[in-house]
Design goal:
This protein is mostly beta strands and about 70 residues long. About 10% of the residues lie in helices and about 35% in strands. The chain is built from 2 helices and 4 strands. A hairpin with a 2-residue loop joins strand 2 and strand 3. The longest helix is centred in the first third of the chain and has 5 residues. The radius of gyration is 14 Å and the shape is flat. The relative contact order is 0.18.
Length: about 70
């Protein structure tokens, strides 16, 4: 199988299942956010899924941004 992608190998084929299981998808105004729980009520943004290129320029959706909210996941 040949896979042509700009995504790093580690993201396409994660080494540990628990890394993949730790990510959750939540809806947001721009589309969907993939987040990982950092602590009690704190989530770190991993990725934004949106069809609008302008959403990726907004600092509130930047990867690494912490969300301090109680999410119903």
């Amino acid at each position: 199988m040949i896979l042509y992608t700009s995504v790093p190998y580690e993201h396409v084929f994660p080494t540990e299942q628990n890394q993949f299981d730790a990510q959750k998808t939540i809806p947001c105004q721009a589309g969907q956010l993939i987040v990982e729980q950092e602590g009690e009520g704190a989530y770190r943004i991993v990725r934004l899924i949106s069809s609008n290129p302008h959403d990726f320029l907004k600092p509130e959706y930047a990867p690494g941004t912490l969300l301090n909210a109680e999410l119903n996941i």
